[in-house]
Structure formats: structure tokens, C-alpha cells
Amino acid sequence: MKKIATAFGVLGVTLLSATSALAQSNLPEPDVLGKTVVPQEVVVPPGADPGATAFTGTDITVWMVVAAALLLLGVGFLLAARRRARGARA
After folding, report:
1. Can you tell me the distance from the alpha carbon of 67 to that of 20, in angstroms, rounded to the nearest whole number?
2. What is the per-residue pLDDT for 81?
């Protein structure tokens, strides 16, 4: 059981790290019928930084840390409950 919990923990950390890295990746321009499609006109609102990623008001990194903490807390509760149940049967 300990190996399974450790595997899930490692998998969770890996996925959370990968999603953060992939969210900031630069994808190549798409090819349509053999031609590379590039935007013709970029509209920049007044006061905006033209090369920056849009700010949506949330900080995804904080929520990923919270999700990882909740995952570890849940695994801890699961292990504690199993250990307690095993002790009650004996």
C-alpha cells in the first residue's frame, strides 16, 4: 500500500509540474494545406504589454500547490484510516 501511495504522490507531483510547464510553452504556427498560418494583425489594447500573456486575475501556481497539498492530505487520511481499521480488528 505504501508503494502505491508513493507512486500516486510521485505521479501527482509530476503531472502538476508538467501542466505548469506546458501552460507556458510556445506552440509552433499551424500548417494549413501546406502553408504556415500567421496572424496578420495584432490588436493591442491601450496600456497593455504587447508580448505578455493575458492576465486573468488568478495565480494558477497557488492553486496547483493547494491541489498537491490536498492530494497528500487525502492519502495521509486514507493510510491513517486503514491503519486504524487494521488495529481495531486485531
Report:
1. 13
2. 93
